[in-house]
Design goal:
Elements: H1 3-9, E1 13-16, H2 19-27, E2 32-37, H3 46-60, E3 64-69, H4 91-105, E4 117-120, H5 122-125, H6 130-136, H7 143-146, H8 150-156, H9 162-165, H10 167-182, E5 186-190, H11 194-208, E6 213-217, E7 230-231, E8 234-235, H12 245-253, H13 260-267, H14 272-278, H15 286-302, H16 304-317, E9 328-331, E10 341-342, H17 343-350, H18 356-364, E11 368-370, E12 373-374, E13 381-382, E14 392-395, E15 399-405
Parallel strand pairs: 2-3, 2-5, 3-4, 5-6, 9-15
Antiparallel strand pairs: 1-6, 7-8, 10-13, 11-12, 11-14, 14-15
Helix pairs in contact: 10-11, 12-15, 12-16, 13-15, 15-16, 17-18
């Protein structure tokens, strides 16, 4: 199976400008392609995950990735998929986030020996002359056509700032600049970026009289049509200091039955034949597929050692095994009242609940255990000595913490 056909079989491709040309470029390893990442946080998250995996796949096929960090466009803000205006960031914050992205991307993409490029659009956008942009770029964009773009239509009712209205022009200019500087002939992006990407291909055609191509990646949605990568605590980050390897593992281990095969196809590098065998799984057998998914993705992001630790810790949750690699929460003397900490406070402190009322309900409903024994009384409390040995606090079937007393 050729590379482009595999991308289709894995359900990765949403829209393309010219399938024949794009498949030929990709299959022959002649695509110099870019994907943009706006540095709106100091870590990449699951929302970026599929783009990184796609870049890795294409690079393995001999194509050249360009990771474009939006240091310039981040100062404007992309209105796509948003109902309000993004908060403006300082240059210093943006640069810090760019530096963090570089480290994380290197786990997926080989930047050595000019095999891939990492560029920042601030290098050309921040030096543009406004009048020149209006004359040389703005003249090629129809306002009427821009307003038909879904990303703008969603914002028109609440109000779309002129600042954000320029985002499509800036992203289009990126493609134009990369085409000239690096011979970039293909742009990838989320399915919600289609209008912006077409703007780039059209600008290149109008200004240079040459063809460039665009392809959108299927958005990673769950069976309910919602974007994956969100939990009650917020985004699932690739930075282990924001989302621990175990929490990352558990996120994928707990995906819905209806989503596990799709995620295996789109995100892992397992052969399609192996995944097709797992498609035959039913009922509790699907837990095996979920474990494979969680291990593969945790290893991809955090390395084999962390993948194995997370796998062992997850299995320990359902057995009497060692909880050494379980997620932990620390209790200090300041958390004690009269020399003890009550069970509800312990649940809140550990992050297993977000409020005392939620903790009370969890105990009253029989959903809290300590070392496998159910906590039945909300007045139950623990002295520091209780944490000297293994102390595993568990809420429900899948959420738990190893509690440490650190004085």
């Amino acid at each position: 199976m050729k590379l482009y056909d595999e991308l289709v079989a894995r359900g990765l491709i949403a829209q393309v400008t010219n399938e024949e040309e794009i498949s030929k470029l990709i299959n022959e390893g002649k695509a110099t392609f870019y994907i943009g990442f706006d540095p709106t946080a100091d870590s990449l998250h699951v929302g970026h995950f599929m783009a990184l995996c796609l870049m890795k796949r294409l690079q393995m096929g001999g194509n050249k990735p360009i990771a474009l960090i939006g240091g310039g466009t981040a100062m404007i803000g992309d209105p796509s998929g948003r109902t309000d205006m993004r908060q403006m960031m300082t240059k210093e914050t943006i640069q810090h986030n760019v530096d963090c992205f570089k480290v994380q991307m290197s786990k997926f993409i080989d930047f050595s020996d000019d095999k891939a490029l990492l560029v920042n659009n601030a290098d050309w956008l921040l030096d543009l002359n406004y009048v020149d942009v209006l004359r040389e770029v703005g003249a090629h964009f129809s306002v009427n056509r821009m307003l038909t773009a879904e990303c703008y239509k969603q914002r028109m009712e609440k109000g779309l700032s002129f600042l954000e209205f320029n985002y499509m022009i800036m992203q289009s200019y990126d493609f134009y600049a990369l085409f000239q500087k690096y011979g970039c002939n293909l742009q990838f992006g989320g399915d919600d970026q289609w209008s912006n990407m077409l703007g780039g291909t059209e600008l290149i055609r109008r200004k240079l009289g040459k063809d460039a191509h665009a392809m959108t990646i299927t958005l990673l949605l769950n069976s309910e049509g919602k974007k994956m990568g969100k939990t009650q605590k917020g985004a699932v980050w690739l930075d282990p200091n924001k989302t621990t390897p175990f929490e990352f593992f558990q996120y994928w281990r707990n995906v819905a039955d209806a989503d596990v095969i799709k995620c295996l196809k789109m995100l892992t590098f397992l052969p399609l034949e192996q995944i097709q065998e797992m498609e035959k799984y039913e009922g509790s057998e699907l837990n095996k597929a979920k474990e494979v998914l969680a291990y593969e993705l945790t290893t991809l992001v955090h390395g084999e050692e962390e993948g194995k630790k997370a796998l062992e810790a997850a299995r320990a949750l359902f057995s009497s095994g060692n909880a050494e690699n379980m997620p932990t929460a620390d209790i200090t003397a300041e958390d004690l009242k009269d020399g003890v900490i009550d069970a509800i406070s312990l649940l809140v402190k550990s992050g297993l609940v977000t409020s005392r009322s939620e903790g009370r309900r969890a105990i009253e409903q029989g959903g809290v255990t300590v070392n496998g024994e159910k906590v039945t009384d909300i007045a139950t409390s623990y002295a520091p000595e209780a944490f000297a040995d293994e102390f595993v606090l568990k809420r429900g079937k899948k959420n738990f913490r190893k509690i440490n007393f650190v004085g």
